[in-house]
Amino acid sequence: MTNSPVSEHAPTIGDTRLLINGERVDGAEGATFDIYNPSTGTVLAQVAEGRKEDINRAVKAAKNAFESGPWHDMKPAERAKLIWRLGDLLLENAAELGGLETLDNGKPFLQARDGDVSAAAGLFHYMSGWATKIEGSTIPISFPGQFHTYTRREALGVVGLIVPWNFPLTIAAWKCAPALAAGNTIVLKPSEVTPLTALKLGELALEAGIPPGVLNVVPGFGTDAGVALTEHPDVAKVSFTGSTLTGRAIVHGATSNLKKVTLELGGKAPNIIMPDANIEAAIQGSSDGVFYNQGEACAAASRLFAHRSVYDEVVAGISAAADAIKVGDGFDPESFIGPLVSKEHHAKVAGYLDLGREQGTVAAGGTYTTDGGYFVKPTVLTDMGDDSQVVREEIFGPVVNVLPFDDEDEVVRRANDTPYGLTAGVWTENAGTAHRMAERLQAGTVWVNCYGVFDAAMPYGGFKQSGWGREMGGVVLDDYTETKTVCIKIGD
Question: Could you tell me if 297 and 234 lie in one domain?
Answer without folding.
Answer: no
